[in-house]
Each structure stands twice: as C-alpha cells, then as structure tokens.
Amino acid sequence: MPAPDITIDDMRLRARERTDMVGSTFVSDDELDRYAEEAHLELQMRLVAKYEDFFLQVLPLTLTVGEALELPSDFMKLRGIRHASGDYDFLRRLDLKELLSVSSTRNSRPTHYFVRGNMDTAFTVLEIYPRPDSAYAMELYYTPIRSLRDSFAGSLRLVSGWSEYIVITMCVKMKDKEESDTSVLLAERSLLLDGIEKSMTPLDSGEPFAVVQQSRGPVPSFYTDPMLLEDYLG
After folding, report:
1. Dihedral sign, CA of 26, 17, 45, 89?
2. To 5 degrees, how large is the angle CA 44–CA 155–CA 190?
3. How far is the C-alpha of 71 from the C-alpha of 129, rounded, in Å?
4. Which pLDDT tens digit goes with each residue over 178-199?
5. Are residues 178 and 162 in the same domain?
6. Residues 60 and 136 placed together within one structural domain of the fold
C-alpha cells in the first residue's frame, strides 16, 4: 500500500496536538525541526545496526588509473565493491597491516581495497589495489545515511511507522523541556520500535540467513553445499 505523503508541517502539527501545544510558542518550529532530524537519525542508526540489507544502495562507478576515490557524501558503511563485468568477483578488503605487502605502484586488474577516513575533507576514501591498468566498471554496495528530507521523498517508505516514531520522540523532547512526565510516551515509543523491527524481519524468508551456498572453481560438491558438507563430516 502506498505510504501517505508526510511533511515536516504535518509532523509538527501531530507533535503539537499530542502534547497540547497547538498555537504555543514554548517550543518553536525551529526546535521541532531539530527534534525531528535528531529522531530521524536515531531511528536510522537503530535500524541500520540490525537490518543493513534494508538500506542497501548500489552505485555504479568506473575505476581509472589514479589516486584514491572519495566515497559519496551520504556514505556510512561499505558493504562491498565488485567488478560489473567478467566474472563479477568482489574485491577483498585489506587490513591496515597488509598495506605494506601490497604494491601501490603496480598497475593491474583491481583485486583489493582499503577504506579510510580523511579528516581534512571529512570524506571517506576508497583506495584500490593494485592500481587499475585501464578503466574498470564497478558496482559499489554501501549503506547510506539520509536526511529527514530524503525520507519525505521516500528513503524510509519501506519502514512502517517511521514517521510516528519521530513524532513521538519529538513529543518526548517537548514534554521534557516542559519538565513533564514522559514515561507514557517512552513506553509507547518502545512498543512502536518493537513493532517496526518485527515488521522488517526478515526481508527474505526463503532461505536460511548467512549460509553461503556456492563456491567458485572446480571443487567437490560437498564444498558447494554446506548441508552436504555437514552430512559428509557427520
């Protein structure tokens, strides 16, 4: 079912109605906007910590000979990077201590990567090893961090109850500023969060979670099916 249109004006009104502050200037609209953005970020972090696949973003990019790449401004966590043609294999992550054993000057087909922060630019940087010897089409899989405005456009529409969670959190902050009891609101928010999480679990119930079913290369059949391997060893 399509999600109803939600705006910041709508959320402010819902919060003011719930706290009996319609027409009041005790909490300004600017304060409410900050409460909403903070609650939105809080909800994202809670959900991403448990359900990263719900928020997976795929970004096509082309690697060329050159220096490290700055990742998108909405980047939060890298899930993987793979070749978009050929054998489609994923690049393997390098540990910091492994960088010394990898040549940074040899040009070849990329096989590994290293992710680091850049404190000067506030961007996350992706370093590719070995350096590409030509242009390579890649696919970057990552978890983004989005603003409340993005969610109005649809980025949280998969999550049922997300706007109500934000509104209740706004109400908690409003009542806290008023130095009123917030226990009922906190209990309601906890129940709502529990319902949100249950509605998200899992996206795909067709297979067991985190079972690798295939292995590349000419290997015995029990290596390609973990269930057969279990029977073989048992």
Report:
1. negative
2. 35
3. 16
4. 999 999 999 999 999 999 888 8
5. yes
6. yes
Tell me whether residue 177 is in a domain: yes
Please indicate, yes or no, if residue 2 is contained in any of the structural domains. no
**Which residues, in sequence order, are bridge partners of residue 112?**
92, 129
In this structure, the answer to whether residues 28 and 65 fall within a common structural domain is: no
Strands 57-63 and 112-118: unpaired
Token digits for 91? 């690049």
Cα(60)–Cα(75) distance, rounded to whole angstroms? 14
Of 8-17, 109-118, 175-184, least confident by mean pLDDT is 109-118
Burial class (CB in 10 A: 0-12, 13-18, 19+), 134: exposed
Provide the number of structural domains found in the chain.
3
C-beta separation of 130 from 137 below 8 A: no
Is pLDDT of 64 > 70? yes
